Amino acid sequence: MLVTKMINDNQLSIIDNQRRGMSVSAEKTLAILDLFHFERRTLTVLEIAEMLEQPQSSVYRHLRVLKEKEYIMETTDGQYRLGYRFLKMARIVRSDNRLMQVARPEMESLMEATKETIILSVRSNYHAVCLDAIQSNRSINVTSEQGGIMPLHCGASSKVLLAWMDEVFVDSLFELGYIKKYLPNSLYKKDDLINNLQSIREEGYAFSDEEIDKGVVAYGIPIRDFNEKVVASLSVAGPRERMLLQDKEFFIDHLKKTGKRIELYL
Fold first, then answer.
1. 263 neighbors 224 (Cβ within 8 angstroms)
2. Which of 108, 186, 238, 245 is the most exposed place for a label (fewest CB within 10 A)?
3. What is the secondary structure of 179-224 as a DSSP string?
4. Helix axes 156-163, 167-175, angle to 10 degrees
5. Residue pair 79/43 in contact by the 8 Å Cβ criterion
6. In DSSP terms, which residues pair with 40 in a beta bridge?
7. Cα separation of 166 and 57, whole Å?
C-alpha cells in the first residue's frame, strides 16, 4: 500500500509540474503578443528576447508555435508581425459587440448629416481602439480606422475616453512613457493635458486640431451605458479648412443627439 501511495504521489507530482510548465509556457507565449502595438508593429527575435529577458532559443520556440497557429507571421527581412488569425477573431468580436450593432446605423445617419468621417472608439488599457469608422466620401488621412490603435492623450475621440479616467491613471500614462509629442499641438505636458481633460468634462465634448493627424480637426463626445459609465466615444473628423468654416455647434449638436440615441439601447 505504501509503495502504491508513493507511486500515486509521484504521478500527481509529475502531472502538477507538467501543468505548471504549460502555464508558464503559455504566459511567455502570450507575453510576445503583448509586445506589439500601434507604434511597434514589427519585432525581431533579438528585440523580443531583450524585452522579455528570455534567451533567443526560447523566443524561437514560442514564435514557432504562434506561426503554426497563424497568430504571427515572419517577413522576408526576418521580422515578425501579427498574423491574419486576428482578423478572423476580430470579426467574431465585432459580430457579438452590441455597441457596434446599435451604433452603426446611427453613425451612418451622422455621416450623412455632417458629410464627414465618423469614428466610434473604446479604451483598451493604455490605448484607444477604433471600434468602427465610416469614411466620408470626402476622405481624409486619419489614424482612426477600424481596428486602429491610438494614443489616449491625442485626438478628440481618445481624449473623451481619458477625460473620465481618474488622476492615478493619467499619472501612469506619463510614468510608463505613453505621453509623446506627435505634432506641435499634441498635449504632452501634464498641466496642459489635465486642464484640457477638465474642460472636456465641464463642456461635455472634446476638440482637437492637428494633435495626431496633420490637417485634421475633430470633435468627440462620450457614450455612456445605463450606469452612466463612459464606455465609448463618438467623434466626427474632417479636413481642418473645412471643419473650422462650420460652426462648432453644428457638429456638437449632431454628435450629442446621435449619442443619446445610441445610449438608449445600452
1. yes
2. 245
3. ---SSTT---SHHHHHHHHHHHHHHS-EEEESSSSTTEEEEEEEEE
4. 120
5. yes
6. 37
7. 42
- Cα 263 to Cα 75, 115, 227, 259, 260, distances in angstroms: 43, 23, 11, 6, 5
pLDDT 10s digits, 69-88: 889 999 888 899 999 888 87
User: What's the predicted TM-score (pTM) here?
Assistant: 0.68
Of the candidates 41, 237, 39, which has an alpha carbon nearest to the alpha carbon of residue 120? 237
Task: Name the residue among 132, 128, 161 with its Cα closest to residue 229.
Answer: 161
Tell me whether residue 243 is exposed, middle or buried, using C-beta atoms within 10 angstroms of its C-beta: 0 to 12, 13 to 18, 19 or more: buried
Distance CA(194)–CA(88), nearest Å, equals 38
User: E strands within the chain?
Assistant: 72-74, 80-82, 117-124, 127-134, 149-151, 206-209, 216-224, 230-239
Instruction: Quote the CA–CA distance of 217 and 215 in Å, as a whole number.
Output: 7
Residues 6+ apart with CB under 8 A from 32: 48, 52, 59, 62, 63, 66, 72
Spatial separation of the C-alpha atoms in residues 85 and 34, rounded to whole Å: 15
Strand order in the sheet with 117-124: 149-151, 127-134, 117-124, 230-239, 216-224, 206-209
The radius of gyration of the chain's CA atoms, rounded to the nearest angstrom, is 23
Residue type present at position 12: L
Quickly tell me which residue has 492637428 as its cell. Answer: 210
What pLDDT, on the 0 to 100 scale, is given for residue 34? Answer: 87
